[in-house]
User: Fold these one by one.
Assistant:
Number 1:
Amino acid sequence: MSMDLPDALRDELLVHEGADLGPRTTLGVGGPALCVIEPRRREELILAVRELTAAGLPFRMLGHGSNLVVSDAGLDEVVLHTRGMKNIYHHGEQDAALRCEAGATLARLVSVAHDMGLAGAEGLIGIPGTVGGAVAGNAGGREIALGDLLTEVTLVDPDGTTRAVPCSPKDFGYRTSPFAGHVILDAVVQLCPDGKEQIFDRMRRTLRAKAESQPLSASSAGCMFRNPAGASSGALIDRAGCKGLSVGGAQVSPEHANFIVNTGEAMAEDVRRLVVRVQQAVREHSGVDLPLEVEWWGAFEERTPVLGAGSDAE
C-alpha cells in the first residue's frame, strides 16, 4: 500500500514501503510495516521526526529488533529503523566518555570501548540491542545495566529540535527509564581507563557464562519475562514444567526457560499462545503473574496479557 509521505522524506531518506519487519527483529517473526525509513545520520533522523509529526503520521522506533514481537499482520504505521546510525566517538575533551548514536549495537559499544582501553561496558556483551533501545528500556545483564553508565541522553522533540538531558544511575530502575517513549538521538556513557587484556578477560568470562546458560545462537527476543520481586522468571517457568514446551515453531528454550526461541518456522501467533500457556502454568504452580519484558507491536488474535511491557524495541 502506498502512503503520502512528505516529499522531503522521499527525496532525502531510504524509504521501503511494505517492508517485512520479521527479518529486522532478532526473533524473526512478524509481517510488514506500512513503511520503513532508515535514517543514516543524525540530521536524517531529525528530519524524519519533524516531517512525520508535521504530517500527522504516527511512527515507531526500531533499533536491532530485540525485545520485540511483531504481529503476523504487521503494522499500519511508519517505522524509523536506526540501524545505520552506529557511530561511537569520544565525547568532547573527556577521554573516558563515549558518545554513541542510537543505532550502535551494545556489542559495538563493548568492542569500541575495549579497543580504546576503556572499561565498564563489558557486562553488556551478549545483549542483542542498540544503544537507543537500551537507553529506553535500561537493558542490562546480571551485574550492570546501561543506565549505570549514562551521563547524558540527547532527545529529538516532535518539532525536530534536540535537547541534551543530563542523567545518572539513580534516574533508572530495573528495566525502567525516564527516556521510554522518547526519540533518542544519542547517549554518553562514562567509562574508565584500564588495560586491554584485563578488559578482554572480563568480556570473555561474561560471554562464557552467558553461553553456558543462554541460547545465544538461537533466534529469540531476549528474556521474555521480567523477574518478579525476589524471584527468577526462568526458575519459575522451569519448576512449572514448561522448559522445552512448544507451540508451532515457538519453543521455551531448553537452555534457559526465560527465552522463547524461533525454531525455524514460528509465527507471532505461536509466540503469543506459548506465552499465555507459560503464564498460566506459572500462575497455577507458584501463584505468580509473570510480567512481560518484551514489547508487542500490531494486532494479535487475542491480546497477550501485557504485565509490565518493555519500551522502544532495542
Note: The helical segments are 7-12, 42-54, 106-115, 131-137, 196-213, 233-239, 268-286.
Number 2:
Amino acid sequence: MIALTRSPLAGILFLVAGIAMFAVQDLIIKQLSATYPLSQAMVIRSLVAMPLIYGLVLASGDARRIFAPGWGWLVLRGVILFLCYAAYYVAMAALPLATTVALYFSAPLMIVALSVMVLGDRVSLPRWAAVAVGFGGVLLMLRPGSALFDWAAVLPVLSGLCYAVSMVLARLQGSRHSAAVLAFHGNLVFLVGAVALATLLGPESAGSVTHAGLAFLTRAWVMPLWQDLALLGFCGVIAAMGLTLLNEAYRIAPSATVAPFEYTALLWGVIYGWAFWGDWPDAIGWAGICIIVGAGLFLLLRDPATQPA
C-alpha cells in the first residue's frame, strides 16, 4: 500500500470498497434481526473482530499505546459509538434499509453544529443554511404527526448525533492515538456493552413484543444455526477489513476527495432494500434523501479544512 501513497483514485476505490463491505454487514444483520437479539449479534461480531483489530494494532506498532494517557477518553468515545450503532441496528430492524441509512447521514449536519458549540469553529452563513435545509429533509423523512410515523425513525437520527459527538471527541484527541488503537477500544467497548445489554435484559424472551426493532433489542439469546453463526462471524471480518479500507482511503487521499463517496452507502441501501425486502422509497422519501445528501455534500465540499490556503 505504500506505493499508493497520495493517490486520490486509489483512495476513492478503497473507500467505495469499504462502504460496500459495511453495506453487506447491514444486510446480514437486518436479515438475521428477526431471529437473533442485537446483543448476541454484537458479541459474536466483536469476538471475531477482536484478534483481527489487535493484529492491526501490532502491525502499526502501537501495542504499547493501547493504554497510554488519555485512553479513558477512548473508552468514552467507544461507549458513544456503541450507542450509535445500537440505535442504528434497532432502527434497521424496523425500517426500510434506505430510510435508515439516509436518516443516519444527518451526522454531517450535526458535526457542523457541534464543532461550533464544542470546538469554537466559525461557520459561514451558507453552511448554516445547508444545515437548516438538511434538517428539513430529516423532518420530511420522519413525517412527525402522520400515520406513517414510526418512533424507530428517530433512532438513526440519534445514531447520527452519537456519531457526530464521537467524531468531535476524535478531533479533540488530535493525533495522540492511531486509527488502529481507536478501533481496538471501540470494539472492546462493543463487546463489553453487548454482554452488559444481554445481562440487563435477562433471559426472558420478548415473544409478546410485536415491534420489529424492540423485539431485536429484547429477544432472548438462542442457539444459532451454523450458517447464521458463520454470517455473524463474517460481520467481524467485515468490521476489521472495512475499517482498514476506510482508514487507508483517508490516509492516501485528501478527505475532500474521498468523503463524498461515503454516500454510496445510500445506493447499497436502496439496492439491498429493494432486492431482499421489496422496499422502495416513495416520492416524499426520495425528496428527503435528496435534500439530506445535497446538504451533506455541500457541507463536505465547503469544509474550510479541505479548501486550499
Note: Residues 305-309 have pLDDT under 50 and may be disordered.
Number 3:
Amino acid sequence: MRTAFLVAPEGVEQIELTSPWQALTTTGETPQLLSTAPGSVQAFNHLDKGDTFPVDLTVDRVSADDFDLLVLPGGVANPDALRTDERAVDFVRGFFDAGKPVAAICHAPWTLVEAGVLQGRTLTSWPSLRTDITNAGGSWVDEKVVVCANGPNTLITSRKPADLDAFNKRILHEVGAMT
C-alpha cells in the first residue's frame, strides 16, 4: 500500500508523524513524506522544536492517484498552514473523491474542514475543533478513535497523542495488517 503523510514545512507534532509512520513501516510499508515545499520539515514537541525530516515529494508533483492512504498528522500550526495552501487542500479532497482512506489526528481535521469533505461524517479531533467540524457539516464526538465509513471512503480520526495506540491500530487494520 502506498501511503502519503502530508505536512506543512513547519509545525507538525512530531509524535503524530513518527508514531503512525513507524507503525506502518513494521508492515513493510515505505511511507512518503509530502509537503508544500521541498527540503525538510521542522517538527515540534508541543511548543518546542523537535527534529527535522526530509521531504520526499512536494504536493504539486503528486496526486491522490499516486497513493492508497493519506495520513494527516496534527500540531496546531501544521494543518493551519495546509488549509491555506490550495494545492494541499485539493490533494486531500482528491482522496475523498477517489474513495481512498484518510487518517487524521488532533488538529489535522482543520484541513478536512477546508477541503469541504465532512458533511454527514462523524469524527473526533482536538476539542477546540468541535465548532469548526460542526459548522462544516460533521458530527464531533469525544472518543479515542472514530472510524467513519459514511461516504465514499473510510475516515479514521483521533483526538491527541495519548490516542496514538488506538489510531495506529485502526490505520493498520485499514491497510490489512491487523484484524
Note: The chain has one domain: 3-174.
